[in-house]
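User: Okay, second chain of the day. Same drill as before: sequence in, structure tokens out.
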Amino acid sequence: MRLKSIKNIQKITKSMKMVSASKFARAERELRPARPYGKGAAAFYEKANIKVEAELPKYLIIALSSDRGLCGGIHSGISKAIKSDMAVRAGGIETKIVCVGDKARGILQRVFRDQLYLSFNNVGKRPSTFEDAAYITQTILNSGYDFDLGDIYYNTFRTVVSYQPTKQPVFSLNAISAAPSISVYDSLDGEVLRCYQEFSLASLIYFGLKEGSTSEQSSRMTAMDGASKNAGEIIQKLTLTYNRTRQAVITRELIEIISGAAALKN
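Assistant: Same drill. Structure tokens below.
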């Protein structure tokens, strides 16, 4: 019974590996055109030399994960990075956490229940679009929490077998307007800055979702490959044990038959 169940599990893990390989190929293709969105917005923040002057700024954390598991430690890596940064952050700073995906929310709510502000689910069941990122952005900006600065946490895809938890800073409209290097850009009034701040935040979230999706599929593919190999090793051991037990039973029955025949002959 156990051998049969392990064989069924191996069939499932092999199927999941094949499905993840197909989804990974699609996610990798969709990641390439999404990269300019994130890199462009990150370059703007870097060139503008934005600094927050507030003594105790309001801080926002956006954790990008998904609703699906069975992909190694990809979701726990994001949560560990947030926990590590929260542990060294100065006290007295008002912090709110926005979780995109149930996996990050499930981990972070155990430690930061009071700081959880917003959560979004149904992430990872289908490829993320810019409309999804725009909806998340509008919900955050219209929620009433006027943050001064924040960080987006997501997984950066490196290779098929590796990914890197990454932190990307984001800033409020007031912080962008007060940046010392913002004057290098021509024709920037308040409305233009407001629109660009919304667009840049949506672009970074979209980029993070795409990077995270690609990392998740590659990690799930690797995890299912390892699970299939482990199932194969268990099947070999169980088969060997089963064959030895069956052979021992047959040998014992033959001994009993031969002994009985010899006794009758005598």
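The two ends are 43 Å apart (CA to CA).

User: Thanks, on to the next one.
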